[in-house]
Amino acid sequence: MTPTAREVTAAADPADPADPAGPADLAGLRRRITPVLVVSQILGGLGVATGIALATVLAPQVGGSDALSGLAPTATVAGTALLSVPLAALMSARGRRPGLVLAYLIGSAGAAVVVLASALGSFPLLLLGMAGFGAASSANLQARFAAADLAEPARRARAISLVVWATTVGAVLGPNIAAPAGRSVSGSGIPEAAGPFVWASGVFLLAAVVVAVLLRPDPLLTARALAPREEGERRERSLRSAVRAVRESPGARLALVTVAASHTTMVSIMSMTPLALSHHGAGVQLIGLVISGHIAGMYAFSPVMGILSDRLGRLAVIGLAVGLLAFAALLAGTAGASHGRVAAGLFLLGLGWSAGLVSGSALLTDSVEGPARTEVQGLSDLAMNAAAGIGGAAAGLIVAQGGYGLLNLLGAGLLLPLAALAVRRAVTGTGAAQDRPPAATGTGTGTGTGTG
């Protein structure tokens, strides 16, 4: 017998009583939770995009060298990576809500530190602030797994893609309000390029309040309350258990490589594009438009990637991601002074990232069952952001020494291991059953089990 909303909520969070007029089934619970995740993603996307659009412009102003420009987004990615596993552990122990709230609060504080660093002219302090700023990106990434917690297995990629898509509104708007955000600090002693971080700090704080107040019942705790538990089951929460779970699952290994390679290629190329455009005479407004198009590619079409991943299988969309990312690098890397060609390349770069993130995240969730799943999700974000952090750090040096074209060539080269692994899986059929979503069950909780 399927429990009512009151019973589910009480089991998941005794301090959060169910609304007597609330829904009596999982579909109703999803209707309560999904809009909150969507709103938080819009706010988080707005804050991240508003700041990140000018990170590589602000860094040389504070640090005094173009070669240091890649360190600002790298610090952001490093902060995201370092916080991924602790946040996953917190969510595993306490639920999604505390982890997301803490991440947004750290992001808000980080943005404020960036503003202080720019006013003082302190590059180390700037990097520290950018690392804290990265916590908001970690919250946005973890929210996609929150969407999967209660999703039907056969619609899991679509659930993930809906929350990813929600970022579109804020992420596309963010770079375009960078100019007014910069003007808003005029005369205050704060550099114009730091203005977007003032706004981002407030937006992240608002996102934390929305999640803290409205994300009830907690999706992860609710999914666990619904899942049948074997007698004597022990929940081991550690990085070691996550690594072991990935090592034992071919599907999880492919998923981990997919999100890491896709994210590293995207971050490495995208982070240096504003600087490359500025060297070819592009102003802040044009840079904002190009980054907006890139972000639209990242998020706006994610529902399409979710549908394709659910219907055609995860492996097919992983192959699509490789093709899109490689073609994007070709376009942008050979664009020269053609701003339009760079814009087209960046749009396809975002589209390829979307395909890789949605299909890889769905495959990862499909491939790992039980208590280890949340830790594996955190490990995935750690791997993708650690790899991207290294790529971002190297990107500034590569552009300074060999140019933007060389960066794109090397970025495309990062896809070769992923392509080889995907081809091998397709040819051998190893673990092929995991490349398509599991059949839907009675309740369709994100635990991969149903309730009878």
Write the layout of secondary structure elements.
Elements: H1 5-12, H2 26-52, H3 55-63, H4 71-94, H5 96-120, H6 123-148, H7 156-176, H8 178-183, H9 195-214, H10 219-226, H11 239-247, H12 250-279, H13 284-299, H14 302-312, H15 314-333, H16 339-367, H17 372-402, H18 404-413, H19 416-428
Task: Give a description of the structure.
- The protein is mainly alpha-helical.
- It is built from 19 helices and no strands.
- The C terminus is likely disordered.
Short synopsis of the structure:
It contains 19 helices and no strands. The longest helix is centred in the C-terminal third of the chain and has 31 residues, at 372-402.
Number of helical regions: 19
Over all CA atoms, what is the radius of gyration? Answer: 21 Å
Shape: globular
How much of the residues is beta strand, in percent?
under 5%
Element pattern in H and E? HHHHHHHHHHHHHHHHHHH
**Strand-pairing-aware structural class:** mainly alpha
Task: Report mean pLDDT, rounded to a whole number.
Answer: 82
Question: Main beta sheet: strand number and arrangement?
Answer: none
Q: How many angstroms separate the termini? A: 5 Å
The share of residues in helices is over 70%
Can you count the beta strands?
0
Low-confidence stretches: 17-24, 230-234, 440-444, 446-452
